[in-house]
Amino acid sequence: MKLREIADALGCRVEGDGELEISGVAGVEQAGPGQLTFLANPKYTPKVRHTKASAILVSEPIGDLPALF
Side-chain half-sphere of 47: how many Cα atoms within 13 Å? Predict the structure, then answer.
């Protein structure tokens, strides 16, 4: 599924490439290419900078990382 399709279904805005193909969801440390992860607590923001996930679901923008918010 395309990142933009997920964003539309969730009522989110895409920051980055909406054409990314997303094949699954995983935790920030376990996620790999093609997966979506999430940032539930802002204190873990440094961890998302090292994730291998293709996109991150966040409540507000976190710089230049592909994200939904």
Answer: 14
